[in-house]
Amino acid sequence: MIRISRPIARWFVQARYPSGTNLLPILMYHRVLTEPDPLQPDVPHQALLAEQFRTLAGAFNVLPLHEAAELLRNGGLPPGAACITFDDGYRDNHDLALPLLREYKLPATVFVASGFLNGGRMFNDSVVETVRRLDTGEIDLSRVGLGKRLVSDMASRRTLIGELTKAVKYLDPVERDDFCEDLCRRAGSRLPTDLMMDDRHVKAMSDAGVDIGGHTVSHPILARVDGPAAQREIESNRDHLTALTGRQPLCFAYPNGKPNLDYTSAHARMVNGAGYKAAVSTAVGVASDDADTFQLPRFMPRERSAAQFVARMVRMATHRHRQVAD
């Protein structure tokens, strides 16, 4: 892995994010693996995450998200400010990411979809783990509009995972779960039930200083459910996490997170009304002076070296397009 010295990295970062610019890059992670997975090439493994965290600790002023959001709103961000977030509540956030956060003394926010704790499995992981286990041959996916697909080598499985995830994501939640259950049966073997954290992992992360944020109960596309259901998802998740950690969550992440497509300004008002201090979307960009505190953009680092990682962080400083729900 190609490294870059801390002084050089910090010089580049300070040049692009100097005092007074009031720019906030927010990094978005989900899982972290012990080693690379060819079926999930965008998911970082622990050694890569360690290198990214080492770079962040040496070159940036990494802040808790709720604190950074307040400073952004008041125009008082320090030079080189940045935030780290993880979505969904995966067990590896506790087992693999938490030791790295401690080692590099970095704050982070982990957004937890509480309905999947204690043995649950998200639909996208059902897709990945089923396709991983499918026998070589043809599979009929006409039910979700994909027709018949040939499953053979790793490339075909990776392509199928992408197509299935897109096809299933916007189904009605009940239909989505039913399809995933049917898909799981086709695997012919038991799928993992330990991908997500349980209650004690969430509590341990909170006790270690990691901010636990809201992410709804069942991770629905909020724009696809009615208003009362969306309100319940937001508030029940908040109450569950408060009871679990003893602290009311301060930040929220919209499931899937694309403005207007996945959530609307009405949902941003619900989150505000539920007592949150800030919320993040998946609109790609860096937050700046005109950012909506309840629709902060983020981006996912996919670089495979420290030099590329720094280059991406520097390049993103110019990506300030305001993308918010109407």
TrEMBL record:
InterPro entries: Glyco_hydro/deAcase_b/a-brl (IPR011330), NODB_dom (IPR002509), Polysacch_Deacetylase (IPR051398). It is found in: Secreted. Residues 80-326 form the NodB homology domain. GO terms for molecular function: hydrolase activity, acting on carbon-nitrogen (but not peptide) bonds. Gene3D superfamilies: Glycoside hydrolase/deacetylase. Keywords: Signal. Its main location: secreted. The keyword Signal applies. CDD domains: CE4_NodB_like_5s_6s (cd10918). Transmembrane segments: none annotated. Pfam families: Polysacc_deac_1 (PF01522). GO terms for cellular component: extracellular region. One of its GO terms (biological process) is carbohydrate metabolic process. This is Peptidoglycan/xylan/chitin deacetylase (PgdA/CDA1 family).
